[in-house]
Amino acid sequence: MRVMRKESSPKKQTVYTEQMETFHRAADLIGMHPRVRLELEEPDFEHIFYVTLDVRDRLVPLHEDDEEAHRFKDLPASSMKAGDALEPIANGDFVLHRRALLNADITVREGVIRIANRGLFKMVKGEPRKFKAYRIQHNQVRGPYKGGVRFHKDVGLDLFKTLAAEMTWKTAIADIPFGGAKGGVRIDPQAYSREEMEHLTLRYMYKLKNLMGPFLDIPAPDVNTNGEIMAIMMRQFTDGQRTPHAFRGVVTGKDVRIGGSEGRLKATGQGVVYCIEEWARDKGFQLPGARVIVQGFGNVGSAAAELLAALGCRIVAVNDANATIHKDDGLDVAALVKYVHENPENLKKTVLGFPGATAIPKADFWNIDADIAIPAALGHEIDGNVAETVKVKLVVEGANGPTTPDGDRVLAMRKIDLIPDIIANAGGVTVSYYEWLQNQRMEHWTEQDVNARLERAIKSNYAIIRDISRDQPAKTVTHDSRRYCIGKTADMRTAAMILALKRIEAHYLLEGFSQ
Ligand code: NAD
User: Fold this and answer.
1) What is the mean pLDDT of residues 175-188?
2) For residues 131-154, average pLDDT
């Protein structure tokens, strides 16, 4: 039965409707059952709520050349002995803990204080604040809701709906028994201290407690969250439980010492690299010496860069939220990882100021001559204009939704290959599943075991998508695409969606609907 979507009056285009274009295209191509389409078109649940936080007192820098600062020229420097009492925040402020006053020698005038070697600061009183929070549970027909938690100043319902739906497609493509979800808080984490972010995380999980669980909804790290945040969420969820260990699978991406999986930290970057290896094998392309540009040097970008460098690729440029750096014969990636991620002074975890490279304007980043581009930051970075300028053979989407539909069309026109996000960055969620399995079984697998399983999973699903795209059904020892090919060719993004939708639809068709 082939039922086409009804044309309705034109609606405002949003990130969500834009992303759903691929869904509808693939649903049309497979003749998706109309009720299944309705089930998948919108999320199961949209939880929108507020979390409040007591924001601490702050010291906010006063620049010496400000007019206001002029009046405090002769203010003597204060000294505080409780060294850790001033907690630096990434935006340049300090949180002023009360213990700062212990054994201190302080001069304050009109609320302004001079800290030796640091300059003038204005004391700003703390206050309670509220933040909008979200958890979108898109679909659970294949298993518990699964998806990351993002803390960012630009998030909203439309974005989280998009990312939650992406998780439904991604878990299906990875062939793991999970559904899709996403959530987070609209906040700029760079303006808050570690302790404030801990309190915010606890409050977020407190409000979601009834909606989460190892068999219900399982968060993981995303932009601006990490294993530390997952540990805090797990603590909140298991607080008061007599058997807390039974609930360790409520979050994934944990530190390996508290139930995390070996290999999880690098899993998304590793998955990106397995896709690139498969692409290179298929095209007869030699990876050693290949030139790569990477946008985003966080969890995904830095891991992908490190692993590619280990394969002999040259990472010639990196762009992040604060800077773009370039070195034509290849960056020293190990040194860059150290500079960004293992340097407590580098509060913004940025490549800005890395001594082993030249700083260039962001506008020049996408023009750099390279073989492979890995967008691994935020969405919508490769639009039609960027797609016109890139000088690469392959774009591999480490980030979620980095290419706009216009970008897609231009890349296709220019015959630049694309490995779409829902397979390229599925490594993270795949190892999250392995972590969850280890938690349920109380096991701890080696990194070799984890990576061997991940490699098999990513490469076999990648091969199925490639076969769908070329309409070449095949069965080999490592993959079987016969069930998924549709009798015509499709671009890689549509092919990936076809695989996801066929796997999801099977549940509805075989299990039926509860009425
Ligand atoms: P992260 O917070 O560790 O790093 C994000 C990086 O992007 C940082 O280097 C930051 O400086 C950079 N960035 C932010 N805004 C930017 C801008 N405007 N221009 C250029 N760079 C910018 O995040 P992450 O976990 O590495 O996630 C990156 C992307 O990968 C996101 O789209 C996320 O949804 C996706 N993803 C992550 C995982 C995972 O396991 N971490 C899994 C699947 C997908």
Assistant:
1) 98
2) 97
